[in-house]
Design a protein that fits this description.
The protein has helices spanning 6-17, 24-45, 57-61, 75-98. It is an all-alpha fold and 99 residues long. Helix 1 crosses helix 4 (75-98). The longest helix has 24 residues, at 75-98. The radius of gyration is 13 Å and the shape is globular.
Amino acid sequence: MRHIAQPDLSTAARALLALPEQRRAAEAARMLLEAEAADRYRQHAGRSHPVWGNGTLEGAARSRVLAEPRSLSDSEYLGALAMVLDAILRHRGSTHLRR
């Protein structure tokens, strides 16, 4: 997966907000796996993955329905951002264990 930047976080959070709350954690983890797969595809094929984008978390998130942008004063949005960050930390922990 490519470097994670602020737009990755906000777009992934918007993708989670478009889902029922009970599906969000699993979807956050799935987006990270898709971003990794898209990055491998990009490196091999020399172009973006047709569904999951260019190997960024934002690219994987944009393959989903997105909720409207929200303010950082919105508690539900903050919760979705926290869920994205938690998924990233968990993913990095599991990835480092496999290496």
